Amino acid sequence: MTKERLYSGPILTLGAVSFIEALAFSLPFSYFPNYAISLGSTVASIGLFTSSFMLASALIAPKLGSLSDTIGRKKIILWGLLGDVVFGALTGLAPSWYWLLLIRVINGAVTAAATQPAEALLMDLAPEGRRGEVAGFVLTCGMVGRNLGPAVGGATQFASSMVVSLVDSYRIPCFVDAALAAVAMFLVAWKIKESGSSSRPSASQVVREGGEKVQISRSLKVLFFCAFANGIALGFIMPISVLFYQDKFGAEPVEIGLVISLSGFIGLIASWIAGRISDRLGRKPVIALGVVSSRLSGMVIPLTLDLNQATFFLAFRSLGFNISNPAMQALRADVVPREARGKLFGLYNTFFNAGDIVGPVIATYLYDLYRFETLNIWGLALPGYGIPFFVNSSIGLFSLAILLIFVKEPKKE
């Protein structure tokens, strides 16, 4: 397949959809804890919002993957995007934190329908020898949206607060989220064709319910474990980042959004380049380079002295993730049989989401418990609010070691 064909049609559309969905998803990053607290939630309960979202996604992902293997990816994606439109808007209408939590549960399920089949569809379209490059391209599109989101959301909330009440200013970006999901839905309906083997496995490739069971290799089992560990590690950081920047540096939501966005953009192109390198040199070396740099940077963040230092190490942490993610996604596709790609990708995401359910609950509890404490560990005075960061990095490094030892990377044909 030529480079011209590689970056045309459905793959470019998936890149655009990845950008839009990531932008919509990350809009509330800089203020969502404040929104939940304004509706009556406690600090210790903030993790429930992330966990509930991931719980619904974890429970439904395998079924959605199996459905996409049988009836096609496009139908599931469209239904998921429609759900994002509806429940994105309802997020901005929640009258209390109990309703907000319920909406997050349902939204987690519909978001899984939008994103889970899209991952399988991307690997269906990608040539085997260029999976890393294609994954890097789409991940780069997603990271651009993810990094823009906090700044856009923070700026929207800040501007809204000048004309409406503080609580209502947290609601406005939710309607922007719903509008973006509607745009993504239109693109998929317009540009992704349901017919053809590129978007849907043939009847002979489909693994039907009650049919032959799919053989799960040792490498894939290890990747499932790593997905669970990585989910825990990610969940530790996401819900407490806003609180950390407020407690340590006194940062406002608009500042936090800019910090997250600017740090994410540094090294963004590395995702695309790293994916191409992994096609040539192998997946595991690229994964190791990215994970080690990101996890060590995460350990340093709570020890920084000012917002500039924290932003620098947050940027280096983002760079590491940008390096490792496309290689990890391509490695997963390498070890999964095409005929069960949707189902096994869904199972992989279930393990990841299960970890992401556990992580936020533990992290917010530990953060709330130790946020104003100073701990003496082996003669070192460490800030208590750094515990989630230290645990996060340790889990990430441990899962990397397991992957490097036990996952067998398929030989190139």
Could you please describe the fold and organization of this structure?
Helices cover 75% and strands 2% of the residues. It is mostly helical. The chain has a single domain, classed as MFS general substrate transporter like domains (Growth Hormone, Chain: A, Up-down Bundle). It has a two-stranded antiparallel sheet with strand order 1-2. Helix 6 packs antiparallel against helix 15 and helix 13 runs antiparallel to helix 16. The longest helix is centred in the middle third of the chain and has 30 residues. It is globular.
List the helices and strands and how they pair.
Blueprint lengths: L2 H4 L3 H17 L5 H7 L7 H26 L1 H19 L5 H29 L5 H30 L5 H26 L26 H20 L3 H9 L3 H13 L4 H12 L1 H18 L6 H29 L5 H30 L3 E4 L2 E4 L3 H20 L7
Antiparallel strand pairs: 1-2
Helix pairs in contact: 2-7, 2-8, 4-5, 4-6, 4-15, 5-6, 5-8, 6-15, 7-8, 7-11, 7-12, 7-14, 9-15, 9-16, 11-14, 12-13, 12-14, 13-14, 13-16
